[in-house]
Specification:
- The chain has 386 residues and is mostly helical.
- It is 61% helix and 2% strand.
- The chain contains 14 helices and two strands; from the N terminus they run ααββαααααααααααα.
- Strands 1-2 form a two-stranded antiparallel ribbon.
- The radius of gyration is 22 Å and the shape is globular.
């Protein structure tokens, strides 16, 4: 590592003013700050923080995502071998390796396209390269089905980074969560690649691993029949462990809970937002259950689909969520309410978490404004009463 540090310091003069590679200064700065903590303070949009905090946040969020990602890789292999009836003959390493080989190309495509656009945009604008996409780049492959083609992921990443982030001014200025914007693009542009019963299980072999499943093989997720009033056959235990069909990183509540503990312990995520999402979702699901509008118990809604993943990793996004302490309660609560309402009342779209978070991203500034104005009004009244 000292050799790399010395090499970067050696070539740095070439990228400074009057250097022969000055036009590529942003590329050098991006690589330097990615590999090492810079000495300068970084000002990013509405956030002002030192680079140590920025790098620490990005690193800890990625670490918190790893349990869900690793389990998702295993589950991809598990579902393939289970569907083929050969699970009992496969070792843990074979199952995991197959899932790894299925998921890894999606992560690579996400980072190549996303970071490539980040570098090109920074070079074009002559600005500092931000680190914000390091988290979005790993979340995007985790919230899509394993059957989602690589070319659609590339298009979605390009759309989300350009129209959801860069045109607003880059990291810290975006209104909508970049990863969810990519998923929304995929869902509305290529719905057959994101929904239905044929996209949740990998159906081909790779490097001699896995099984070639019959053409037309389908397997539904537990959420698939909820909108039509059909209770899933999946047990609560399976929902908690995550050995069920679903998006790559969203199935295991246990793995997501481990990530939540890491985020809360390090103080990166807000427990107020996280808890409020679950409270809002639980109360709304309980209401629908009492009215006979949902075929599952209220707590099943918190375990199925992307509810837990969205509450832990995306509703708590510090850029697009509410920032006032009181506003975090309202913001999270409304996400939980809207997510369950969409699930139960819209049979054509059983997973409502994506739409709920994107909708509340839009209203987060209004929530903060109302909280601030309320505080100003209360202080004014106290001042007049003294």
């Amino acid at each position: 590592m000292s050799f790399l540090r010395n090499y970067l310091d050696k070539i740095k003069p070439h990228f400074e003013k009057d250097g022969k590679w000055h036009a590529f200064r942003s590329v050098y700065d991006g690589m330097d700050t990615f590999l090492y903590v810079p000495h300068a303070t970084s000002h990013s949009g509405v956030h002002i923080h030192d680079a140590i905090d920025s790098k620490r946040i990005m690193s800890m969020v990625v670490i918190a995502l790893l349990p869900a990602l690793l389990f998702g890789m295993y589950n991809v292999g598990y579902q393939n071998y289970l569907a083929a009836g050969t699970l009992q003959d496969a070792s843990f390493c074979e199952v995991f390796a197959y899932g790894l080989l299925q998921v890894l190309p999606k992560i690579i495509v996400s980072y190549i396209v996303g970071l490539g656009i980040e570098f090109a945009w920074a070079q074009w604008k002559g600005e500092e390269i931000q680190e914000g996409y390091l988290v979005s780049g790993i979340i995007i492959p985790m919230i899509v089905p394993v059957g989602c083609p690589l070319w659609t992921i590339a298009l979605a990443v390009a759309f989300a980074v350009i129209f959801g982030k860069e045109i607003f001014g880059g990291t810290g200025m975006n209104i909508f969560n970049v990863a969810l914007l990519a998923r929304a693009f995929l869902f509305f542009s290529y719905p057959t690649k994101m929904s239905g019963d044929s996209v949740w299980v990998a159906n081909d072999t790779i490097f001699g691993l896995g099984n070639q499943l019959p053409d037309g093989f389908t397997m539904a997720t537990p959420l698939a029949g909820v909108g039509q009033g059909i209770a899933p056959a999946t047990s609560v235990c399976d929902m908690v462990t995550g050995l069920i069909p679903g998006s790559i990183g969203e199935t295991s509540v246990i793995a997501i809970a481990i990530g939540a503990v890491i985020l809360l312990w390090t103080g990166i995520a807000s427990w107020k937002t996280m808890l409020s999402v679950f409270v809002g979702g639980a109360l709304t699901a309980l209401l629908f259950e009492s009215l006979g509008k949902t075929p599952v118990d209220w707590y099943a809604h918190l375990l199925m689909g992307g509810f837990a993943f969205g509450a832990v990793f995306m509703a708590t996004d510090p850029v697009t969520s509410a920032r006032t302490e009181s506003g975090k309660y309202a913001y999270g609560f409304l996400i939980g309410v809207v997510a369950i309402v969409v699930r139960v009342m819209n049979p054509g779209y059983p997973e409502g978490m994506m739409l709920a978070i994107l909708l509340m991203n839009m209203f987060a500034p209004l929530i903060d404004y109302c909280v601030v104005q309320r505080n100003i009004s209360m202080r004014s009244k106290r001042g007049m009463n003294q």
